[in-house]
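Hey team,

Filing this mostly as a record. A colleague (T.K.) asked me to run one chain through the structure pipeline before their review meeting, and I want the input and output archived in the tracker in case anyone asks later how it was produced. No errors, nothing strange. Just documentation.

Input sequence:
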Amino acid sequence: MSSNAIYIAFFLVPVGAALVTNMAVLAIVIFKVVRIDPRPPLFGQARGWLSLIILLGGTWLVGIAAKAAPSATWLAVAFVVLNSLQVRSRGTQLLYSALG
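Output structure:
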């Protein structure tokens, strides 16, 4: 087995399966939130969706794109920044409190 096939089998397949599952869950949550009556404010919905995208693996989509296009260093930087936002530190607590 070549190293590329091993990489695909043991990294991309599990990550891809997790991303597909997480994006399906995100779609279900968005569908249910949109049907809530009375509808919450749009800013609150958008903030919730962004949080879910970050938690459910949206950052890994950026990481896979960075791996696919190695010349785009801004994708690698975005991947690192987005992953660092997942840590619940004092800085992110201040960010969350500033957002609402």
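Quick notes for T.K.: The chain has a mean pLDDT of 76. DSSP finds five helices and no strands in the chain.
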